[in-house]
Specification:
Elements lengths: L4 H4 L6 E2 L2 H9 L7 E5 L16 E5 L2 H10 L7 E3 L8 H4 L4 E6 L5 H10 L4 E9 H8 L9 H7 L2 E9 L4 E2 L6 E8 L9 H13 L5 H4 L1 H4 L18 H16 L1
Parallel strand pairs: 2-3, 2-5, 3-4, 5-6
Antiparallel strand pairs: 1-8, 6-9, 7-9
Length: about 260
């Protein structure tokens, strides 16, 4: 049976070959009966611990990986789908109930995956994923750090985020040039933010797009000539918590409406 490693290298995927780490990742998923969606199963190092579950589906865009897994698990062929997670309509999947996401994510699309998760935050209750360590740290970082950024704020607004462990580059084929990090997202109790959420997203992005400047200068593009009154205007974006960004968003909205 042909290995999909060679075919998929161009997609930015590095295949985990350490079974102990694979088991740790799977074990970090909440132990409930919700459906599980694996993104980019590749050679199936995570898949082997999940495919026996009735409520499991794997999405991959590499035909050799899909064929490899279908030949390996002929009785579960329907669980392996040729589907791009970034382009997939997840509403039919979510119609069966809320679900969890797991994966050793390709480095080059990991940020896009997280924005897709954000879009479906009302359906995705948890995620356990492997990222380039720098990205994993950034997502889990707290205010006050230079690593704290757009993804940190947006994801932490709706998820509890835990950095679980670091993974050596030597347990992959082909080995990446950097270490990896595994994080867990667990949906928090925030149904909706106490502000205009569309504006909140814009405020966070604008603030970090000019992170060397104070928030006052960064959000001018949103407030225009409106006079915004907020104690947070003279701080930099990385100094503000989710709650403080919510307050700032409300201040900007009030100023625009005047």
């Amino acid at each position: 049976m042909a290995s999909p490693v060679k075919a998929k290298k161009h997609l930015g995927q590095h295949f985990l070959i350490d079974l102990n780490i694979a088991q740790k990742i799977v074990n970090a998923l909440p132990q409930d009966e919700l459906a599980i969606l694996e993104i980019g199963p590749g050679t199936g190092v995570l898949t082997q611990y999940l495919i026996e579950k009735d409520n499991f589906t794997a999405f991959d865009i590499d035909t050799e990986s899909i064929e490899f897994l279908k030949q390996k698990y002929p009785q579960h062929q329907h669980k392996v789908q040729f589907q791009d997670f970034l382009e997939a309509d997840l509403h039919p999947f979510a119609a069966k109930g809320k679900f969890k996401v797991v994966g050793n994510f390709p480095y080059n699309i990991s940020t896009q995956i997280m924005f897709k998760v954000l879009e479906h935050r009302d359906d995705i209750t948890a995620l356990v994923g492997m990222f380039q360590k720098e990205v994993a740290v950034r997502i889990a970082e707290k205010p006050g750090s230079k690593a704290y950024g757009i993804l940190s704020v947006l994801l932490q607004a709706f998820y509890k985020i835990e950095y679980l462990f670091t993974v050596s580059e030597h347990v992959f084929n082909p080995p990446p040039k950097v270490k990896s990090g595994v994080i867990r997202l667990t949906r928090n109790t925030t149904g909706k933010l106490n502000c205009d959420e569309d504006l909140f997203f814009k405020v966070v992005k604008a603030s970090f797009n000019q992170r060397r400047k104070t928030v006052r200068n960064s959000v001018k593009v949103l407030s225009g000539n409106s006079v915004v009154e907020s104690i947070y205007l003279d701080k930099r974006a990385e100094q503000l918590s989710v709650a403080e960004f919510v307050v700032l968003t409300n201040s900007i909205e009030q100023a625009i409406k005047k």
